[in-house]
Write a structure and sequence with these properties.
CATH architecture of the largest domain: 3-Layer(aba) Sandwich
Helix content: 40-55%
CATH topology of the largest domain: Aminopeptidase
Largest sheet: 14 strands, mixed
Structural class: alpha+beta
Number of helices: 11
Radius of gyration: 22 Å
CATH class of the largest domain: Alpha Beta
Order of helices and strands: EEHEEEEHEEHHEHHEEEHEHEHHH
Low-confidence stretches: 1-13, 363-382
Number of strands: 14
Strand content: 25-35%
Distance between the termini: 34 Å
Mean pLDDT: 83
Number of domains: 2
Shape: globular
């Protein structure tokens, strides 16, 4: 974690800006899609609520250059845009606007974002909190197969084997506006059963399940594999313009011998390429399957920007909370590295890590409640 208390030069105010309190203006939805192309930086993001969600909009001339959703909680603002890279100047202009508009505001918290170098005008806490594993999609299926090399040939072999020996195998993709809610519920039910069998509890809470069903209606991209009409594997994804986000991947263990989970994921990626996709986000967690499909990790950071050094010193609970989360992330990273070298360590510490995660989610928060992609649905190995 870095704490920067230096005071930099003032910002050159090149943007016109406006704050819409307790609303998301209708034009902002399309501008968010254009600017960020990200489910977690959209009007349908997991923690967006009406009322209570405020919207900051900045223009250069007639062009919208920033749309940032946020909540106010006493002396702290919490940014809801997540899993994106902020333009550094746009972020500092946003901070300047909020600190000027709300005199009692001391801090602005951001979760799971990245940004370029800031000017240092505002004291800053910043630490790595997670990573988004991203596959840069090539322009064609042939180009992707060439990048996969021998792994692509194995995937093609398993796909042909399934189609040959299970003649009733079907793979279909459904997009927003054409997705049966019952199909989504069946995939989530299968996921919950898998979690119960593997973890002894669900990795998805009720709020996340409700959000997934809601967001699919707006941005859904759902792939499902069936055998004789029975759902045997699926992927619940979202699509915002050219970007795809994999929220849930699941398969029926009765089909383990066929590798049907891996095949379903492979066919889902090919469907995204065929539709002109630019990026496929496998999201947080370093599951080995993500790298087999050529995903690459992008670091994401939690940040707290303070009005001044005095405000930073007055926000002791916030400072300590951020420091504690930074320590927790470093501990997880160290344990993960040790487990990669020595698998028995992973088996020994996994129950402790899971218990600590549940304790942190259930306990009271000194700042805004846990509400970032790090707490969102996680895609598990198919």
């Amino acid at each position: 974690m870095t704490v920067n208390l230096a005071q930099g030069p003032g910002l050159a105010g090149k943007h016109a800006s406006c704050v819409y309190e307790n609303e998301i203006p209708s034009f902002a939805r399309q501008d968010m899609e254009r600017l960020y192309q990200n489910t977690f930086a959209s009007a349908e993001a997991e923690h967006v609520r009406q009322p209570g969600t405020h919207t900051y909009v900045a223009w250069t001339g007639a062009v919208v250059v920033a749309v940032i959703l946020f909540h106010l909680n006493g002396a702290q603002a919490r940014v809801l845009n997540a899993a994106i890279e902020f333009d550094a100047q746009a972020l500092e202009c946003f901070a300047a606007c909020l600190f000027a508009r709300y005199p009692a505001l001391r801090a602005i918290a951001l979760r799971s974002v990245s940004t370029g170098a800031l000017s240092g005008r505002y004291p800053l806490q910043k630490f790595r909190s997670t990573e988004d594993v991203v596959l840069n999609l090539p322009p064609s299926v042939d180009a992707y197969m060439a990048r996969l090399g021998s792994a692509g040939k194995r995937l093609e072999y398993f796909t042909r084997k399934i189609r040959r020996r299970l003649p009733d195998f079907r793979h279909a993709v459904y997009e927003a506006g054409n997705i049966d809610p019952a199909l989504v519920r069946s995939l989530l039910a299968l996921k919950l059963r898998r979690n119960a069998d593997q973890l002894g509890h669900s990795a998805l809470d009720a709020a996340q399940l409700a959000w997934l069903q809601r967001v699919v209606a707006a941005y859904g991209f759902v792939a499902v594999a069936t055998v004789d009409g029975q759902v045997c594997a699926g992927a619940i994804c979202t699509r915002v313009r050219d970007n795809y986000f994999v929220h849930v991947i699941v398969h029926d263990p009765a089909f383990d011998a066929w590798g049907i989970g891996i095949v379903n994921t492979y066919l889902t990626i090919l469907a995204a390429i065929e539709r002109g996709g630019r990026e496929c986000h496998f999201l947080w967690g370093l599951g080995g399957w993500k790298f087999r499909f050529l995903g690459e990790p992008r670091a994401l950071y939690d940040m707290v920007m303070y009005r001044s050094r005095l405000a930073c010193m007055a926000c002791v609970p916030t400072v300590l909370d951020a420091a504690g989360r930074a320590w927790y992330w470093r501990l997880k990273a160290d344990l993960r590295a040790a487990a990669a070298r020595h698998p028995p360590i992973e088996r020994a510490v996994a129950p402790w890590v899971a218990g600590w995660r549940r304790l942190r989610q259930a306990g009271p928060r000194m700042t805004a409640s846990r509400g970032s992609p790090t707490a969102g649905p996680v895609a598990h190995e198919p």
